């Protein structure tokens, strides 16, 4: 059951990040899910560096915000690699 929730929440977080970074038209649902899940790991790492306790086992607003931040960072890096600049 946890995997299904991770896929759904990852898809939503990835979709929101793609809207923020203006990449919604070029990404499908699969890539939104991947960006959301990988972004949550990046967000957890960033959160541990700055002292925000975002864990993968708890469902919390700070955890969701850190996941969104991680997904935005991931898309920013992807933009730099693909285009040579951030959009």
Automatic annotation (TrEMBL):
This is GlsB/YeaQ/YmgE family stress response membrane protein. InterPro entries: Transgly_assoc (IPR007341). GO terms for cellular component: plasma membrane. Pfam families: Transgly_assoc. Keywords: Cell membrane, Membrane, Transmembrane, Transmembrane helix. It comes from Erythrobacter aureus. Belongs to the UPF0410 family. The chain crosses the membrane at residues 6-22, 29-47, 59-81. It is found in: Cell membrane. It is a multi-pass membrane protein.
């Amino acid at each position: 059951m946890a995997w299904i929730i991770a896929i759904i929440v990852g898809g939503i977080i990835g979709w929101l990040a793609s809207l923020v970074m203006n990449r919604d038209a070029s990404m499908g649902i699969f890539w939104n899910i991947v960006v959301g899940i990988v972004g949550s790991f990046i967000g957890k790492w960033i959160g541990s560096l700055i002292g925000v306790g975002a864990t993968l086992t708890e469902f919390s607003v700070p955890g969701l915000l850190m996941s969104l931040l991680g997904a935005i960072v991931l898309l920013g890096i992807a933009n730099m690699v693909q285009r040579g600049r951030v959009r």
